[in-house]
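Two proteins follow. First one:
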Amino acid sequence: MSRDDFICPACGAEVPGNALACPDCGADEKTGWSPDTIYDGTDIEDPDEFDHDDWKRREVDGRGPRRTKGQWFWRAIGLLVLGALVWLFVVRHWCAIP
């Protein structure tokens, strides 16, 4: 342990003097060295709050969240526009005057 290193008040791990947060628990000065900050801003779910069945449904089974009405609306609009473009191409191609 060098002169600048210190002990984390939240978990007791050795923290390098130039570290912005504890490498073991994630506590830092902004949060008052609270161990509750370990997963803040990382998009990693807290193991205590992790729902394995929900994760399996979303990631493994391929049954993600249900589509909202707005998502169905824009999907239908996209299909209509695509259909119109295909129809215009076909009509223009078959009805073209040589």
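Second one, unrelated to the first:
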Amino acid sequence: MTVHLKKLSVGSISIDSLKGWQKRRTDAGLPIIHPTRNWPRRADELLDGGAIYWIIKGQMIVRQPVIDLIDIKRDDGRPACGIVLAPELVAVWPRKMRIFQGWRYLETDDAPDDMPQTDNNEAMPAELASELRELGLL
């Protein structure tokens, strides 16, 4: 059974700022790796199609598939878990979240649905999608 993680995107102010930071890494030929002190105990479930659901400015608004978990060293030399992420970011229906440290598990049934995509394979603007949802068109 698949499980996800929810995590604050510290320093990000929007999906575009998160995307920009990650693009700089991939443009430099580096993988997108999020370091974390603790290894997920439910690693097998996370690697079975799991994702990180990023929280930006108090709202869970985007998910990013998890590719692998690797051993890394933190800046201070201590061992850590590196969460290797796919480069694609998928906008989800925004959900208000309380601030917390570290990451938390997110069960698949509790994860927000993906936002509708436009013909250009981009997320529909949240305001438009919300209005269409209220009208029963989504």
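SUMMARY FIELD: Strands lie at 3-8, 32-36, 51-56, 59-73, 79-85, 90-96, 103-107. The mean pLDDT is 90.
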